User: Fold this.
Amino acid sequence: PSMRYCSQSVIANQSASIIKVKGRRSGFKGLNTCGSAYCFHCVSKRARTHQEKVNRLLSGAVTSGYVSNLVTFTLPRHLMSVKMKSDVFSGVMKELFARMRMYCKRRDCELYTVKAIDNTIAPDGSWNIHVHSIVITSIKLDNLREWTWKTYERLCRVKFGVQVHRYGYDYKPITDIGGIQQYLVKGLGPRSSKSEGTLGLELASSAKGRQGDNLGFHTWIKKEIEEGTAESPETIKKYKSFLLSIKGKRQIDYSRNIKKLLELEPQEEEEEEEIEYSRKIGVSLFAAAVRMGVDGMILDCIDRYFDVGDNESRFVILDELIKSSSDEVMLGEYKV
Assistant:
């Protein structure tokens, strides 16, 4: 329910506005939001937050001379239901990384980790879940790659009766901080990568499976909407199974000692953003736009005018309408 009504009402005793920052998509401000990782409205802000955090972690590791690796775990796609896959990953990952901490501790090695869950859907409708992890160690451990695979394989087999394959496991050193931070948290939001859907940012990549391209969660939903099948029983069933699988599970997780590594790389002061357009919009006009389903078209018109330079006549009319819509008397919460 919180996602359903996200960004459809103005915060009580505040006014709504439209802000266009140079280089970004315009958006409404002053609205009630849900903050969900799978909400089209909230996802971009979460993406930028995690991008900045991962960038500081990797930069701090480089500064300290630590060793960073990207580790990927994938379960067989058709082996079980999406909920079972999610449960297996939750149980296995928790124990695997707990054992990894002990493995490193016995070797006087500090360990820092970040784990992010990817959810993609194959052309045949099956969900594919895998985990991307950043593993940072204070010293190089030559046997860590093989130890991680053997422990992961054994936990899946013994605890859950799942046989995983070596081709679903990847362990490689991080050489490009920018590329890895994008890869770890890629695919977040309808404007992002066409493939995987993690808590993340944009990266033009593809997840090519044996049956064709795998679609990330947001891209899949957008495709169903565009094709007019979003409310079909089959789509709703897939959507419900997905929501059930992620309920109560963290989509991105940092190790408890991560603050120590973050302190090695002070947070940079945010650059002053160049505001290209800023205008208050009346509550009643905003509510009408949401009811009619044209709130996205309003933002698109503004973006096309500033980013591309066309739609000038439409933009002028729209701008005049927004300016004249001031209804400060109605600043109470207005739900549509």
The chain has a mean pLDDT of 76.
